[in-house]
């Protein structure tokens, strides 16, 4: 329902800063992300799964610092396809499982459905700004 309501204008509340450059916007309360260039949405909004209790996704301004198309976590030994790191070990990446289970969560990463992570890979680049705000419900 949040996704359907957000489609027309995901930034209606103005929580993601408007810049001339593309900005990846991560709305933790609504568990959504999109990319905007100025006021134009150029990707999404799409559903996400962020950090579970005890593993929050870091808020504030970040930038894409490294990318790995076929990454595997050295800590959790799990695949992270289309990984785009923006806050230390935290990244946008695809998952093969269900991102909608409210009892699950990531270790701080922003999980996307596999196809959407592949699409985001084509939109962002090294240095692309990322803005994350709010708090995931239940954390």
Keywords for this entry:
139 residues; L,D-transpeptidase catalytic domain-like; five-stranded mixed β-sheet; four-stranded mixed β-sheet; globular
Q: What does this 3D model show about the protein?
A:
The chain is 9% helix and 40% strand. With 139 residues, it is mostly beta strands. The mean pLDDT is 93. It contains two helices and nine strands; from the N terminus they run H-E-E-E-E-E-E-E-E-H-E. The protein has one domain: L,D-transpeptidase catalytic domain-like. The longest helix has 8 residues, at 114-121.
Structural class: mainly beta
Secondary structure: number of strands: 9
Note the main sheet.
5 strands, mixed
**Tally of discrete structural domains:** 1
Return the string of H and E elements: HEEEEEEEEHE
CATH topology: L,D-transpeptidase catalytic domain-like
Helicity range of the residues?
under 10%
Shape: globular
Number of helices: 2
What would you report as the Rg, rounded to the nearest angstrom? 14 Å
Layout of helices and strands, plus pairs?
Elements: H1 2-6, E1 22-27, E2 32-37, E3 40-47, E4 60-63, E5 66-72, E6 79-87, E7 90-95, E8 110-113, H2 114-121, E9 129-133
Parallel strand pairs: 1-9, 7-8
Antiparallel strand pairs: 1-2, 2-3, 4-9, 5-6, 6-7
Give the structure's gist in a few sentences.
This protein has 139 residues and is mostly beta strands. 9% of the residues lie in helices and 40% in strands. The protein is built from two helices and nine strands.
